[in-house]
Amino acid sequence: MSDIEVSELARMVKAPVDVLMRQLKRAGIEVSGPEDKITDAQKLALLESMHEGADDTPAAGGKKITLKGRGAAAGGAKKSGVEVRRKKTLGLRKDNVSSAVPVDAEAEARANELALQAEQDRLERESVIQRSEQERRALEASRLGGGAGAAEVETTASAAPVVEQEEATVEEVSVEPVAPVEPAPAVVPAKQVEEVKPEPVVEAPAPVEAPAPAAPEVVEPAPVEAAKPEPKPEMSAMQRRQLVADAARKEAASALKRRPSRAKLKAAEAAANPPVAKKAEPAAAAKPAAAAKPAAAAAAPAKPGETTVTRKDKKKVRTRQRENPRGNVRGGNNRRGGKREIKVDRGEVKHGFEMPTAPVVHEIEVPATILVTELAQKLAISSTDIIKAMMKMGMMVTINQPIDQETAMLVTEELGHIAKPQKEMDDEAILAAVLGESKDFDETVRPPVVTIMGHVDHGKTSLLDYIRESRVASGEAGGITQHIGAYHVDTDHGIISFLDTPGHAAFTKMRARGAQVTDIVILIVAADDGVMPQTKEAIEHAKAAGVPMIVAINKMDKPEADPDRVLNELSQHEVLTEDWGGDVPVARVSAKTGDGITELLETISLVAEVQELKAATEAPAKGTVIEASIERGRGVVATVLVREGTLAKGDILLCGTEYGRVRALFDERGNSVKEAGPSIPVSVLGLSSAPEAGDEAFVVSDERKAREVADLRREKQRDTRFAAQQSAKLDNMMNQMESGDVQQINLLVKGDVQGSVEAIRSELAKLSTEEIQVRIVSSGVGGMNGSDIDLAAASKAIVVAFNVRADATARKNAQEHDVEIRYYSIIYDVINDIRDAMSGMLSPETKEVFVGLAEVKDVFKASNFGQVAGCLVVEGAVRKGNPIRVLRDNVVIYEGELESLRRHRDDVNEVAVGTECGIAVKNYLDVQPGDQIEVFEHIEVARKI
């Protein structure tokens, strides 16, 4: 508690200010007036001074009351132990021995503080009590000024020691008025009360009607011998608890009858009761069974020093138990080491009307997708309540199932809460918040970024090898480019950065990504092959990106080269070259002999000069992730093309959902570099995981901000994935219900770089049909480990390894779980093998094949077969056992089976064309001359995807 003024303390303990100042002076506390403040330590010093003053001068014939040391009351094993704090012997004056009880200094000090705090809070909360208190203080001042009786009462009361009764479960506190607490009032002898008995206060200005409390009853003191301690002063915990509970119930019932409301009772008590002459009802004495026991003689006698337990006292006890939740110790008397438990006040009896709590209405923001558990946490309710509400709405969901925004808002409103759609922050807003305001930096000329595009096998990589004076194409698997490569070359016309894109149809996204980050597109067309499908696609990518284009007609060294045909085909796709009156430059080159390479580089420089390419070198670096992979011994390696600023070691790089501090930088030849400027591709080490190809890369100043943005992006990505999975589950369910069981082939894809994995996933997804679905269980970059094999075994998936290998643990697990691993280095082989595997899962197709045709010449009867047709085979052959059709006027009139085939009374299996034979049709007797008998058969043909 904070410091308090002397006058405020006197008002709270209901004692005169001058009496309290004399007691403070006696305790050695110097105060100059009622406005001085005293601290908590000074309050305790005042209390100890009062105790010492009472103990130093005991009467000669005074009695002693002894509190035993810390232990537990004697009792059986079924009774709770009562802890006794300490042992202390008190000497009491002979004339006041009847009102003396044991003292516990620690509990008393604690009770004083709690009582003062409760009184102060109550005074602040209840304005009605404050008004009645002012009236009482005015009445008290008039009485103190009018007579000396009050001083006599004060003197007599101050001579008595401060005592307290403490019980194990519910404590009874009795303190005289001059102590700095506001507990139950102390009691003085009956004679003194009669001398200072106040005038009736029914006519007081309080606007309430109060019954009998204005004249408290006086209890005669018990004989001195009654205060002698018995051999067993402690009573059992059960008896104490029962005694206190009975007293509390009686006091609560009587208080409820006496007052109509709490405010009126407070006003009546303040106006009617004097500060020192209040007596409590001896409720505990009315229990003869408890008073008859020896242990109860010292705890609950009917004497003037006893105070009953009220609801106010019980509130203080519960507060004290909360502040010191040590509880008692199990184990009986003097038994240590038991488990401590917190006492619970089970004897509390609540009376009166309590205002019902209004329902809590939450207002939440709902994202695009949300899990049922997350919605329950936002609404502060159980997940089962949401599931029940959705079941009533006709939706069956699980606890971890994602639901869309509209459904979540409907459920929230159904439960009585308010839902609002959450405003999604786009990437631009997120980056603006992280990067802050952009500063103006000086811009300088930067090198151009040139992307080489074209059809497969038209010489793109070979042309770049000649420019770089390298042999990249000779080392590629299958002689084709399957990764997007980034290089920068120093030429006579300056630095030029090249991006080499694959030409295969599977790498559409790679080509689109290359067109987005480039400044100039070089369209390679073979002079002997012309415009091909991927050439057309490259033209569309260049137009979509809005970048200038340069046409390079390659393989001009071949005799069959026809550049005019190439220009004609390009014009059909709205690419008008300069030779045809357009604005697209053309260069005729040969990657084998090097013819035209110089003219091509000059054209690139001219186009770049016209574009006026500039960038700020001092700004924070920005770029694009061209490719990403996981390499053994190096970790995550991301190829980043810097577009602006300078990327250096130690920078914090944010790439999509990944971030990290740049540990090392390498150029395309593997040489370590310290920094990379605009238009320079560089390999970055240090990211947390492999980013997606095409992600934007930014250098941020704070790693914490980078982590927050990455986590937010991961959360959005996860929500999108959950929504897609849920939609796929529903679609699959409906498809299976409509068309029966659909076969499924599960695949686990591991590749060397993100671009290859992306291309494989895209191409395999296109192989799905109505009968067989291709499901990618998981995909990633890097070598295979044991966890990948475990996942494949659990999902019964085939592992597709593209340019990666399995470690020893993965190979062992694959053998144990019989997991099939297929290694590939060319993307064609991956697609073809999976297509063949899916074809093998398809059921064969049945086809009808024509065998022969016979014309009926005559009909005769046979004893064995009935009607027999004499026929001439006019086409093909007639075979026994095959199904037949009977045609009349080229209309099928019967379809059945050939029962017998004879030639010259001999059974034969086959009759060739131009030969006569007898044919008996099974279960058909209406064959007529001129009819035709067609013979056919059914064969099964394997289907392919």
From TrEMBL:
One of its GO terms (molecular function) is GTP binding. Residues 448-596 are annotated as: G-domain. Keywords: Cytoplasm, GTP-binding, Initiation factor, Nucleotide-binding, Protein biosynthesis. GO terms for cellular component: cytosol. Residues 52-80, 125-165, 211-343 are annotated as: Disordered. Residues 445-614 form the Tr-type G domain. InterPro entries: DNA-bd_dom_put_sf (IPR009061), EF-G-like_DII (IPR053905), EFTu-like_2 (IPR004161), IF2_II (IPR044145), IF2_N (IPR006847), P-loop_NTPase (IPR027417), Small_GTP-bd (IPR005225), T_Tr_GTP-bd_dom (IPR000795). Residues 256-265 have a biased composition (Basic residues). The keyword Cytoplasm applies. GTP binds at residues 454-461, 500-504, 554-557. It is found in: Cytoplasm. Residues 125-140 have a biased composition (Basic and acidic residues). Belongs to the TRAFAC class translation factor GTPase superfamily. Classic translation factor GTPase family. IF-2 subfamily. This is Translation initiation factor IF-2. It comes from uncultured Thiotrichaceae bacterium. The lineage of its organism: Bacteria, Pseudomonadati, Pseudomonadota, Gammaproteobacteria, Thiotrichales.
